Amino acid sequence: MRTMGLIFSSINERNVPELTMVRSMASVPFGGRYRLIDFALSDMVAASASTVGIVTKYNFQSLMDHVGSGKNWDLARKSGGIVFLPPYGGDSRMLYSSRFEAIKSVLMFLKSCTEDVVIMSDSDFAASFDMNKALDYFADKKSDITLVYRDKMPDADELKHRTALVTDENGNVTGIMPADIGKGVNKLFTGILIVRRDFLIRLIERCSAMGMKSFSGDVLPFAVREHRVTGYKLDGFFASIESLQAYFRYSMALLDKPVRDSLFKTVEVYTKVRDSVPCRMGADAKVSRSLVADGCVIEGTVENSILFRGVKVGKGAVVRNSVLFQDTDVGERASLTYCLSDKKVLVRSGKSLSGCEELPYFIPKETVL
Amino acid sequence: MIKKCVAMLLAGGQGTRLYALTTRIAKPAVSFGSKYRIIDFPLSNCANSGIDTVGVLTQYQPMVLTDYLGNGEPWNLDRSHGGLHILPPYLAKSGGEWYKGTANAIYQNAAFLNAYEAENVLILSGDHIYKMDYSKMLEYHVEKNADCTIAVLDVPFEEASRFGIMSFDEDGRITEFAEKPKKPKSNHASMGIYIFKEEVLLDELSAEERNPDTQFDFGKNVIPSMIKSGRRMFAYGFNGYWKDVGTLRSLWEANMDILSGQLDLNDGNKIYSRNQAYPPSFISEDAKVRNSVMTTGCEVYGEVVNSVLGEGVVVAAGARVVDSVIMRDSVIGKDSVISYSIIDEGVHVGERCKIGGSADAAVDPTLIGRGKIIDGDTVIGAGKVVE
Questions:
Q1: Is B366 on the interface with A (CB under 8 A)?
Q2: Does B287 contact A280 at a Cβ distance shorter than 8 Å?
Q3: I need a surface site. Which of A212, A298, A365, B67 has the fewest CB within 10 A?
Q4: Per-residue pLDDT tens digits for B222-270
């Protein structure tokens, strides 16, 4: 059973407008040195996907820069490998506005592939899991589609954005609905599904002819009624980026070892190599309970924080409970508490900024304070 | 396919003075500076100098080295025209033999140089830590119309007898050369970096093959005989950081030079390396890290002072690492103390061990060899080597 991947890089961007203003969802930084797409991509590589299509919409420069030829994921291949799928101008000259339209726009690509099975995924999460188990489940159950779900009572954000599933005792999906309609349903669809490629092409063509508009609202419920759709439960850490608060909360969760092990030790997570120098802690540095990436230079105090590559913390500066993206520069005696700084922010000496646990203070990209 | 300059990197040496570090790997593959291996420095210098064709001559324990080099992609050397080539000794119709010395190794690969119609050949070795723009040296070499240009560094007089020492006139033309002289006449030391005109190099190397008393060595044989025969030999001055890391002490010192800032890795020209997929390093609540460098995948629960940690190193709670170099994937057990030591890759040190002495002592750092498992409560003194 040969597998391929299809990643939607800009689904749910409206959930975190702060971070997706300058980039697509897939290239939102996470975990000190990664972009969200690294997790979906690495999961697919671990499942031996030989082709991965990346569906893009707009603002995908940073994503293309990050993924490049795909060589960091061993996906720079003579045939297959990484294939970027930017919007394709049809009669309407309109960008697609739903996932179903996005899938329709890549039908040609799907038809040109030779793999048997497609793993479809969004890129609005950080999670590692053994996709091979899900593929075995898909095959054993003789499924037409396997939907991957989490066993979790939805929180307020998830009620707004997520789709819920009802399954019978054999693992068959018997119902699918928006989470806020399926009150009390604790199976949340992750956006990851496994489907036979030829089946997917026929399903899309048929549903398109029937005038359907929405993938999760029309196509999946239709498939649940007419075909064999099974549910596969995903265990372990799953950071679902529903809002800036959720982003911050899940980032901070990485400071717990079981969470790190789940995210980083289930499969190898690959990312773009930046060839930064090793990180350096000075004679007066005080670092505790923090994740520190390569290229950082720390002379001050860092507590409960995540520092991405190339962050500088000057003498006497204090960084607490914060997430600082690549190349943030914190000047001497400056102080950041509950802050989330985007790339290349410069905090001048002596400045003090603070948010709170529920609502971190967000500093946009390249801000000079 | 004409190349203006092809580099030949001598990476076949054992490096006996690194003891257990080179029991199972060649010296150029020895870890350095947290995330690098020694060979990253000459290879990155090539990449940063616009040299896109590099032959790496391997012989001693090549597996880890060839695996690390792969297709040369980390150093931008995965090319269809040129790129990185691994050149091991080979058998030919008329027989074959091991590389008998640095000069013979190049001689045996004359076909490689001819294939690229190299105008000039840059000879490098895999045991020095430095950053250098070879393109400037090449410009100088061409400008002087030199047969051979040697990179030169002024060293302290008391150390001069460890190097090839030369004298040159105002124009830079070399007048005398002595390999490791007992009484050095100057402190201008050869850095072991040469640029030759290709046809001159091949002439000299075939002459050397006919010499019955030769050791097939550039410093001992080829360079002195070229000066004797009146070839145009020029010295190219270099004054940046450069260190021969051929001994345990000098390897340790070069690592410490990163901490003191003498070796600045962050000065714009990147050193490239091939690295594993590790998450960022985690420093725990009770950890203390002072004046140290580390790369990805480390987990520090204890204390780390004046030390260099490689990828994926774990320092358990209560452990103390001082003035030491811990190479990738090694684990330092609870309450153990490591001082003035080099811990090779994949070593497991048990709990409550005491390893090493004082950095001020006149002995080499303590060395624990690759993959060793040290039982709990073991004491290993200053200057010891565990293999």
A1: no
A2: no
A3: B67
A4: 999 999 999 999 999 999 999 999 999 999 999 999 999 999 998 888 9
Do A291 and B282 make contact, defined as CB atoms within 8 angstroms?
A: yes
Question: Are B265 and A281 a contacting pair at CB < 8 A?
Answer: no
Sheet holding B341-343, edge to edge: A346-347, A329-330, A312-313, A297-298, A279-281, B292-294, B308-309, B325-326, B341-343, B366-368, B385-386
pLDDT digits (tens, 9 = 90+) for A210-245: 999 899 999 999 999 999 999 999 999 999 999 999
Orientation angle between helical segments A131-140 and A36-46, nearest 10 degrees:
50
| Closest Cα in chain B, distance from residue A15 (Å) | 26
Residues 276-295 of A with CB under 8 A from B: 277-295
Q: How far is A286 from chain B (nearest CA, A)?
A: 7
Burial class, B375, CB count within 10 angstroms (exposed 0-12 / middle 13-18 / buried 19+): exposed
B290 lies within 8 A of chain A by CB:
yes
Is A288's CB within 8 Å of B285's CB? yes
Helix-, strand-, coil-residue percentages of chain B, each rounded to 5: 25, 30, 45
Q: Which residues in chain A are closer than 8 Å to B35, comparing Cβ atoms?
A: 277-278, 294
For residues B348 and B25, the answer to whether their CB atoms sit within 8 Å is: no
Phi, psi angle pair for B7, to nearest 5° = -100, 140
Phi, psi values for residue B174, rounded to 5°? -75, 130
pLDDT at A92: 53
Residue B182 has pLDDT above 80, yes or no: yes
Q: What are the helix and strand counts (H, E) for chain A?
A: 11, 28
Rounded-to-integer distance, Cα B324 and Cα B309, Å? 8
Whole-model pTM: value is 0.93
pLDDT (mean) for A89-100: 66
Average pLDDT over every residue of A92-115: 84
d(CA A348, CA A350): 6
Task: Using CB atoms, pick whichever of A33, A288, A289 lies closest to residue B280.
Answer: A33
Is B305 touching A (CB cutoff 8 A)?
A: no
Asked if residue A313 has pLDDT above 60, the reply is: yes
User: Is the Cβ–Cβ distance between B367 and B344 less than 8 Å?
Assistant: yes
Burial degree of A273 (CB within 10 A; 0-12, 13-18, 19+): middle
A164 strand-pairing partners: A177, A188
Q: Which residues of A touch B129 (CB under 8 A)?
A: none
CB contact under 8 Å between B34 and A71, yes or no, is no
In the predicted structure, residue A93 carries a pLDDT above the cut 60? no
pLDDT tens sequence across A58-67 = 788 889 999 9
Say whether A281 and B34 touch across the interface (CB within 8 A): no
Residue from A69, A257, A292, A305 to probe the interface with B (highest B Cβ count within 10 Å)? A292
Q: For chain B, say whether A270 makes contact (Cβ under 8 Å).
A: yes
Nearest to B356 by CA among B327, B320, B312, B310: B320
Would you state the pLDDT for residue B266?
Answer: 85
pLDDT in tens, B262-272: 999 988 889 99
Residues 6+ apart with CB under 8 A from B306: B256, B259, B290, B291, B292, B322, B323
Of B71, B33, B31, B30, give the one whose Cα is nearest residue B54. B71
